[in-house]
Design a protein that fits this description.
The chain is mainly β and 263 residues long. The chain is built from 2 helices and 18 strands.
């Protein structure tokens, strides 16, 4: 009888161990203060008239319907206000951008909002794009009225303006924010430094944010632009393109004079 009772207790304890929830992921900083980021393995921009190498996988890429926009540079800024947090906020500003109609180096200049794109990264893998505060908003299928988070302009021949609204990616995270997602994955890295007073080990800890935001909502806007007035673009924006955009890009983030890691 005693043996049977012990066996039953062990079985119950085993079930409890299996059912125990996993610890939530978090960003851990060694100090509070400003954060900064840049494109990971970013391509060097040579002095003119030389042209930079064309390596799409090392650039920031937006695929928005018929438009593929690639940016050579991404600079981000933020502020760490907690040593441990499930979120990390930064404003990402893109430059040296172009619309690439073909899979080669021929392109048309593209510009992005000077305000950049404010993103709240969640340690469990989803991202929240916030409005840029400029007051522009549009109606989106499945989302309703949303403020613009980032505006991409292709000014040549007034080709197109593309608005990316405030949104959560993936949208499932709106109702189930506690689940694990893969829209953003995180990799801890250490980079060599000569600032031995601050980093006695000779290395600073940083985090690479691997972004692949799929089902990104967007809209072609601008009364005078071609893509907002041609039927083929209107259909793309309203029926399909509204939730079929993709943003891919890697950013390496750090805390000023401190360490940053994902746990």
């Amino acid at each position: 009888m005693r043996k049977t009772w012990i066996t039953a207790v062990i079985a119950v304890l085993s079930t409890l161990v299996v059912a125990a929830p996993a610890m939530a992921h978090q960003f851990v900083a060694s100090k509070l203060g400003k954060s900064a980021g840049r494109g990971y393995e970013e391509i060097a921009i040579p002095e003119k008239p030389a042209q930079p190498e064309f390596i799409p996988e090392r650039m920031q890429e937006f695929r928005l319907g018929k438009f593929r926009v690639l940016c050579y540079m991404d600079r981000s800024k933020g502020e760490v206000t907690e040593l441990s947090s499930e979120t990390f906020e930064s404003v990402n500003k893109y430059s040296k951008c172009g619309w690439y109609p073909q899979n080669d180096q021929l392109h048309v200049f593209a510009a992005t909002s000077a305000t950049g794109m404010k993103v709240v990264y969640h340690a469990n893998g989803f991202a929240q794009l916030l409005g840029n505060g400029e007051g522009e908003s549009h109606e989106y299928r499945g989302l309703g009225t949303r403020e613009t988070a980032l505006l991409i302009k292709i000014p040549s021949a007034k080709a197109c303006n593309i608005a990316i609204p405030e949104q959560i990616v993936p949208i499932k995270a709106e109702k189930h924010p506690e689940e694990e997602f893969a829209a953003v994955t995180y990799t801890n890295v250490e980079t060599a430094t000569t600032r031995l007073r601050v980093f006695p080990s000779g290395f600073q800890k940083k985090v690479v944010f691997n972004q692949e935001l799929k089902t990104l909502h967007f809209k072609y806007v601008g009364e005078e632009t071609q893509c907002a007035n041609l039927e083929e673009f209107e259909k793309q924006s309203e029926e399909a393109g509204g939730g079929t955009g993709v943003y891919k890009g890697k950013i390496i983030q750090e805390v000023a004079s401190g360490d940053l890691s994902w746990e």
